[in-house]
Amino acid sequence: MNNRKLIYLACLALAFAVVFCEHHPGVKVSAKANKAEKLVVPLINAGNEEVGEAVLTETAKGVRISLHAEGLRPGIHAIHFHEIGNCTPPDFMSSGEHFNPEHKHHGLKNPMGPHAGDMPNIFADRHGIVETVIFNPRVTLKKEKENSLRDADGSALIIHEFGDDQLSDPSGNSGKRVLCGVIR
């Protein structure tokens, strides 16, 4: 048998195996079993204009945040999950405090912290654009967990005016809330 026929038979056997696994009850295909949950969170500014989005994905390492936002002041900005899924402009104070189900102190550098909603600072380029990916290992998108961002009243993703000092309690001296997105 020449190589072409051998390759053809191998491909045919693989195709039959895939069809069998896909349609046979009781056989689970691993790609489906590991399908990650994703949430797209539109981000609004104080003028209630959509200026970006965050795509949240549940991973083995926690929640992955793929972020794109525009219209920020160039430089360092704090980003946090807040406790209430409400983004009422212009100040977004309706989102409550940082998400903190374990009642810890604020800051990634705080020996008595951090809040579950605390995350590393992000950087807006000279055009005011942020394009980054960060992880938060202290939260989940799975409902009915104590650290779930999707509890009864949801939560919010907030980007602040300035960077977070990662130590000062309760909010890291990060200034006003400039962008907000509701997580449900």
Could you please describe the fold and organization of this structure?
- There is one protein chain.
- With 184 residues, this protein is of the alpha+beta class.
- The protein has two domains: 3-32; 36-183, Immunoglobulin-like (Sandwich), CATH 2.60.40.
- It contains two helices and nine strands, in the order ααβββββββββ.
- The chain has helices at 3-23, 30-33; strands spanning 38-44, 50-59, 62-69, 75-77, 79-82, 122-124, 130-136, 155-160, 177-183.
- The strands form three sheets. Strands 1-2-3-7 form a four-stranded antiparallel beta sheet, with no helix packed on it.
- The longest helix has 21 residues, at 3-23.
- The protein is globular and about 70 Å long.
Annotate the secondary structure layout.
Elements: H1 3-23, H2 30-33, E1 38-44, E2 50-59, E3 62-69, E4 75-77, E5 79-82, E6 122-124, E7 130-136, E8 155-160, E9 177-183
Antiparallel strand pairs: 1-2, 2-3, 3-7, 4-6, 5-8, 8-9
Question: Any key phrases for this structure?
Answer:
single chain; 184 residues; alpha+beta; four-stranded antiparallel beta sheet; 9 strands; 14% helix; globular
